[in-house]
Every structure is written in structure tokens, then in C-alpha cells.
Amino acid sequence: SVNKGIYHASKDLVFILNSDAKLFPDYFKYQLVYFEKEDTFGVNGTIINWDNDQVQAGGKILRFNALKIKSNVNYYLTDVDEERWYSTMFLSGTNMLLDRKKALMINGLDQLFDPFYVEDIEFSLRALRMGWKLYYEPKSICRHQISKTIQSHHRRKYIQFLNIRNKYYMHCIHLSSIDLAGWFALTITTSFLRIFIGNISYIKAFLALIRNYKGVIRSRQVFNNTAKVYTGDQTKDTREVLTQLKREILSYPIDKEFY
Question: Which CATH number fits domain 2-150+236-258: 3.40.50.2020, 1.10.150.530, 3.30.420.140, 3.90.550.10?
Fold first, then answer.
């Protein structure tokens, strides 16, 4: 349904908002200026609780832990420079304003990740590897009910399975060939070891990956082919992109939160 909205929209920008989120009245006031730059892909705002002003999420940091891409770090600015634009490493699906043309160029959100989880991270990685910019605007504020929609409709174990499976998909799409070979060896080992502590979600997710591996490789190839059309051989390596962005973000005055 999100992709249909992107495809049928008629304006230059499109906005994605969760059904369990609502915006402050001046939300867009601070974001439109970002799209005056040709390389802007999208912008996220600050997410706070539905019932109070406690912050849920700010800017996002993706990081490599050995061969795994970790997405469990928010950053919060301790001092905001009104003249500076702050990068983020992925756009949260809770609220994202996008350049529609660029979203169409990379074929929107990948339906491989249906019904939910990780699709926003994978979408953002494609944009970053195209050389486009993602920004966090702290003054744009969105209220959000924490996971209420998903948790009210799905069992906890099923949610865990989908989260793991979709992270596996993401790695297979975006890791380099060398990193991917090492990732497979590591993931097979750790997935089987987790059985001994009673957690079978990881091995179930890995088996789901194997069953749908042709679809995963198709997504990898489609992106690589699309990137070559628009960037030639200049498609950016995932590890290189994330390393450079992490270095930039750590230069900001921030506090980090692991979740």
C-alpha cells in the first residue's frame, strides 16, 4: 500500500506516516528546505511518546559488529546548531518525507520484507548506496504509540521471527561478496548454537532465508542493475558508506542510546 501511494502520488515529495502516529502542526515547516539540495533523499523527525514528551527516537546510527549490521542505536543532539544539517543513517518508517522521484528510481519499499520490520532500513541503505543523503530534523516532532499496532495483531514469537528473517534478507542484499561469505558462516553457526538455549527463532529465520533465497538474490540484482543505470560503476559499498557516516555523526554533540 505504501508503494501504491508513492506510485500514484502527483507531487515531488511524498510522506509516509504510521497509522499509530500523529504530527505536531509545524512538522513540515522545518523539513522542506532540505529538498532544495539535489542529493537529498529523505528526512526524519524526532519521535516522542503518545502520552508524554519522552523521546523515543532521534537520529539513527547503523554500525558493523564484525559482519553484522546493527541498527540499535539512537542519537540525540545535546546542542543544536540552527545552521547545520544533521545526517541520519536510516529513515524510520514511522515518519519519513521523501523525494518521490528518487524513491521510484530505486523501486520503493521491497515487498520481500512484507508484512513488516526492517524494510525502512533496507530502503535507506539503497538510498545511501546511490550517494543520496538522509537527514534528521530535531525540531520536526511526531507522537507515536510504541509498537501498539503490530503487537495487537501478532504473537511475540512471530514478530521475533520476522525481525530476524528480514535482517537476514537485508544482509544478503547489501553485504559485499566477501562479507556475505563470512556472514553465512557466522550465521549458520550462531543459529544452530541458539537451539541449545531453547531459541529456535534464528534457525527458523535462516531456513526461511534459504527457502526464499532466489527472491533475495533477485532483490540484490535488481538494485545493483538499477544503481548501474543511474550511477555507472559508482555504487557505494555498504561498509564504506556506514563507516563514513558514523564518523560524521560522532563529530556532532550527541548522546547515544542503545535499544
Answer: 3.90.550.10
